[in-house]
Amino acid sequence: MGIFNADTDHEQVVFCQDKPSGLRAIIAIYSTALGPALGGTRFYPYASEAEALHDVLDLARSMAYKNAMAGLDLGGGKAVIWGDPERDKSEALLRAYGRFVESLNGRYYTACDVGTYVRDMDVVAKETRFVTGRSESYGGAGDSSVLTAYGVFQGMRAAAEHLWGQPTLAGRRVGIAGLGKVGKHLTGHLLDDGAKVVATDVSERALEWARATHPQVDLVDDVQELITSDIDVYAPCALGGALNDDTVPVLRAKIIAGAANNQLAHPGVEKLLADRGVLYAPDYVVNSGGVIQVADEIEGFNFSRAQQRAGRIYDTTKQILQLAQAEAIPPAVAADRLAERRMAEVSRLRSILLR
Ligand SMILES: NC(=O)c1ccc[n+]([C@@H]2O[C@H](COP(=O)([O-])OP(=O)(O)OC[C@H]3O[C@@H](n4cnc5c(N)ncnc54)[C@H](O)[C@@H]3O)[C@@H](O)[C@H]2O)c1
């Protein structure tokens, strides 16, 4: 895949190499229309350089839309490190990476993603100022799943209000696929709200956690059983691609709102959902609590301020669902339109000369 073609609108793509430490990284900046690009660093053993490039371009674009709808004054970017995090990660590699991030002079802020952790960002931070998601002892925002789950819950409340008239899940059955970092916190919010939770996970440890902590949660064998059971809301909180040609026709839930990124397996799934009368709360809108949490670190982390910002996911989701209804378009399309509108409107302001 080249980058100078009609499918890619990215501003800048930087290839970074440091042979002694084994660093091979690509930093992609999709847009700085709203401010410096923010997005995490994925450390992953891609099959090829082309696959790594494809992933980073996709992820950087998604971050621009997510940050725009989260109300952040930040653009969208992402980085990938091509390698096996278990085998290849070292202090030298992370610090070499940090120096490349620094060389962009604030056009790109990095953070954690698949294969990178808070402790890694502490190492990257030795070489660059442009890093978030550090540990709390370094003034960082810590584990972003706390506000990710809070935001998903707010988006779900907005969808419940849109469909059933009340912003609550009380008395509803909510199916959670994936009791990981986000799924666990989400279970707590839902039970506190009076919902009944049905869940599944492939990890025995996660299931044990549920049995021990919340014995009232119904556990089912797999995602197929979950989505075909009698649930009102489905929250995909495991992997991407949860909504596809096989799953959409058998869904029983009337609302989808979950944390997983890229839930729609391919373009067109949003239409299949709408045709079946399933209300889809767009993934990148409802799961933006995590980026809101780490973005707050740029100003000096304050949990209650970040939580207040994540609480606005409720209003944003409502706005998107109302626009979708008024214009008879799927909510995913409405969200993209609002994100593009904000990027265009705010960046246009720079044409007003200040001096
Ligand atoms: N953590 C965040 O702040 C954040 C922010 C935005 C988006 N997300 C997305 O939300 C999702 C969950 O994130 P997380 O941080 O909780 O990850 P995690 O790795 O802690 O949890 C994922 C859970 O899903 C389970 N799982 C994997 N495959 C499964 C399957 N086929 N069926 C059932 N369960 C399965 C895993 O065992 C694990 O318990 C991911 O897609 C992530 O990209 C997370």
What topology does this entry show?
Blueprint lengths: L11 E7 L4 E9 L5 E2 L2 E4 L4 H21 L5 E8 L2 H4 L2 H13 L4 E2 L8 H7 L20 H20 L8 E5 L3 H12 L3 E5 L3 H10 L4 E2 L3 H5 L5 E4 L18 E2 L12 H7 L3 E2 L2 H4 L2 H8 L6 H9 L1 H15 L3 H18 L7
Parallel strand pairs: 3-5, 3-6, 4-5, 7-8, 7-10, 8-9, 10-11, 11-12
Antiparallel strand pairs: 1-2, 2-5
Bound molecules: nicotinamide-adenine-dinucleotide.
Nicotinamide-adenine-dinucleotide binds next to helix 5 and helix 6.
Briefly characterize the structure.
By secondary structure, this protein is α/β, with parallel strands linked by helices. It has helices at residues 49-69, 85-88, 91-103, 118-124, 145-164, 181-192, 204-213, 223-227, 269-275, 283-286, 289-296, 303-311, 313-327, 331-348; strands spanning 12-18, 23-31, 37-38, 41-44, 75-82, 108-109, 173-177, 196-200, 218-219, 233-236, 255-256, 279-280.
Characterise this structure.
There is one protein chain. By secondary structure, the chain is an alpha/beta fold. Helices cover 43% and strands 15% of the residues. It contains 14 helices and 12 strands. The strands form 2 sheets. Strands 1, 2, 3, 4, 5 and 6 form a 6-stranded mixed beta sheet that branches. The protein has a 6-stranded parallel beta sheet with strand order 9-8-7-10-11-12, with helices on both faces. Strand 1 and strand 2 form a beta hairpin. The longest helix is centred in the N-terminal third of the chain and has 21 residues. The N and C termini lie far apart (43 Å). It binds nicotinamide-adenine-dinucleotide (NAD). The site of nicotinamide-adenine-dinucleotide has 24 residues, from helix 5 and helix 6.
